[in-house]
Design goal:
Elements: H1 12-43, H2 48-53, H3 61-70, H4 77-89, H5 103-138, H6 143-156, H7 160-171, H8 199-225, H9 228-235, H10 240-248, H11 253-277, H12 283-292, H13 296-323, H14 326-331
Helix pairs in contact: 1-13, 5-6, 5-8, 5-11, 5-13, 6-8, 7-8, 8-11, 9-10, 11-12, 11-13, 12-13
C-alpha cells in the first residue's frame, strides 16, 4: 500500500520574505525615480557658479572655468547624474557649493532636530485625535459630534503657516507674551534644551494634522459601531463603554496605522514651512536657503532624505497593518 503524498504548503516565513522583497524592490524603484526627478529639477535651478561668485562671476572667467571643472558642470548631464548617484549610494551627499562644506556635516544636526519635532507632534497628535474621534463616534449625531465635526473641518482648511502666525499673534506678542515667537538657540544647544521654544512649532503642526486624522478615525469608528457583530454584543447586554473598548477600538487599529503613516510622512516634508516660520533649526530653513542660493547638493540631499523617510514610514505601516489583520497574516502562507 502506497503512502499518501504529503502536499507541502508554503510557510509564512517564505510568504513574508517574498512580500518584503517585492516591497523593497518597489521602494528602490520609487527612490530611483525620485533621484532622477530631483537631479533634473535641481539642474534647472540656475547656475551654481554664479551663486558662488556673485558679482565676481562676470569678471573672473578663470575662476568660473575652474569651479565648473571642480563641480563637473562641464560634463554631460547623464554623466553628472551617474557620478552623483554613485556617490549617494556610497553615503557621500556631496559638497555644498555655497560654503564648500560637506553636505552631511551641514544637514546632519538639522535632520535630527526635524526628527525630534515630528516625534513630539506624533506623541501629542495620536492620543488627541483618538480621544476626539472616540468622543465624536460615541455621541454620533449629537451636539458633541457636531461640534467636533465643525471644529475639525474648519481647522483642516487653514494652512499651517496661517495657524502659526495666529499663534504667534496670540501667544508671543502684546496680547499674551508667554512664549518665544522664534527659536533662538546658542551654538551647540539642542531644541530639547529649550522646551519653551518648541511649543509653538509643535502646536502649529498638531493643529494642522490632527483634524484630518480625527475625521478619518471617527469615520472608521462609526462604521465599526454600526456593524453586525457590535450590534450583537449590544443585544447580549454588553455595556456601551465595553463595546467601544473591546470591540470597536481594536478594529480601528489598521485604519489608524495607515492614516497616521500618511500624516507622519507629510510632516517630514510639510514641516519645512513651519520650521522656516519659527526659525526652527531643522531642514526647513536649510532647504529654503539652499534653493535661494542654488545650492543644489543640499537640495538634492534633503529631498532624498524626505523621500526615503516617506517610503520607509509607509513600508512600516504596511507591515504593521498585516500583523494586526488576521486574514492578511493567513494570506502570507498561501
Amino acid at each position: 500500500m502506497m503512502g499518501a503524498t504529503k502536499v507541502r504548503r508554503p510557510s509564512a516565513a517564505r510568504g513574508w520574505t517574498l512580500w518584503l522583497l517585492r516591497r523593497t524592490a518597489l521602494a528602490v524603484l520609487t527612490l530611483w525615480l525620485v533621484s532622477l526627478l530631483v537631479f533634473l529639477a535641481t539642474s534647472a535651478l540656475g547656475d551654481p557658479v554664479r551663486a558662488i561668485l556673485g558679482k565676481d562671476y562676470a569678471v573672473s572667467p578663470g575662476r568660473v572655468a575652474a569651479i565648473r571643472e571642480t563641480l563637473a558642470l562641464d560634463r554631460p548631464l547623464l554623466v553628472r547624474y551617474g557620478r552623483w548617484l554613485s556617490r549617494l549610494l556610497h553615503g557621500d551627499l556631496g559638497t555644498s557649493v555655497a560654503n564648500n562644506l560637506p553636505v552631511g556635516e551641514l544637514v546632519g544636526d538639522k535632520i535630527v532636530n526635524s526628527g525630534f519635532l515630528v516625534l513630539l507632534v506624533a506623541i501629542v497628535m495620536l492620543p488627541l485625535a483618538t480621544g476626539l474621534a472616540t468622543l465624536s463616534g460615541r455621541h454620533r449625531g449629537g451636539p458633541v459630534d457636531h461640534a467636533v465635526g465643525v471644529v475639525t473641518l474648519a481647522l483642516a482648511g487653514v494652512p499651517e503657516f496661517v495657524t502659526g502666525i495666529l499663534l504667534v499673534a496670540l501667544l508671543s506678542t502684546s496680547v499674551a507674551h508667554w512664549l518665544p515667537a522664534v527659536t533662538v538657540l546658542p551654538i551647540g544647544t539642542r531644541p530639547w534644551n529649550r522646551p519653551a521654544s518648541m511649543v509653538l512649532p509643535v502646536a502649529t503642526l498638531v493643529i494642522a494634522v490632527t483634524p484630518y486624522l480625527t475625521r478619518m478615525l471617527r469615520s472608521s469608528l462609526v462604521e465599526v459601531l454600526d456593524s453586525d457583530y457590535v450590534e450583537l454584543a449590544r443585544l447580549k447586554g454588553v455595556p456601551e463603554a465595553r463595546v467601544l473598548r473591546r470591540h470597536a477600538l481594536p478594529n480601528t487599529v489598521v485604519p489608524t496605522i495607515q492614516v497616521t503613516a500618511l500624516q507622519l510622512a507629510w510632516l517630514v516634508g510639510g514641516a519645512v514651512m513651519v520650521e522656516y516660520l519659527f526659525n526652527y533649526p531643522g531642514i526647513g530653513a536649510t532647504m529654503v536657503d539652499a534653493v535661494k542660493n542654488s545650492d543644489f547638493p543640499v537640495v538634492q540631499a534633503l529631498t532624498m532624505v524626505i523621500a526615503a523617510v516617506y517610503v520607509v514610514v509607509n513600508l512600516v505601516a504596511d507591515v504593521l497593518s498585516i500583523l494586526f489583520t488576521p486574514r492578511a497574516r493567513t494570506g502570507m502562507a498561501r
